[in-house]
Design brief:
The chain is mainly α. The chain has six helices and no strands.
Length: 111
């Protein structure tokens, strides 16, 4: 849907760059509501959830968003990079390591 792309990454990224993570999170949330299959909306929503201070549900909410992005596109390296950070923040070092390995593999293979 073109409407989600108008909100995200444009508006959401502008909010992130201005350190207005709550507003960015709202924009990305709206984008994923308008287009549930929009991978980048889910990735950026997860990123905003990791950056929100205090975390808006913290890494657990971020992981939910990132897992949706993974379902849509399982070969997007950025998804796994953020998943590794989120898993680390939850204390799940095994899952963090697996996500980091996927990230490194995909990054090497230009995915």
């Amino acid at each position: 849907c073109a409407c989600s792309r108008a909100l995200d990454p444009g508006l959401g990224n502008a909010f992130l760059q201005s350190n207005k993570t709550d507003l960015a999170l709202s924009a990305f949330k709206r984008a994923t509501e308008l287009d549930p299959k929009y991978r980048d909306g889910w990735v950026l929503k997860g990123y905003a959830e990791l950056k929100t201070n205090p975390p808006a549900g913290g890494p657990h909410k971020a992981l939910n968003s990132l897992k949706k992005a993974e379902e849509i596109d399982p070969i997007n390296a950025r998804t796994y990079e953020l998943m590794a950070i989120a898993y680390t923040q939850t204390g799940d070092s095994d899952s963090a390591k697996k996500a980091e390995e996927k990230y490194n593999y995909l990054k090497e293979h230009n995915q």
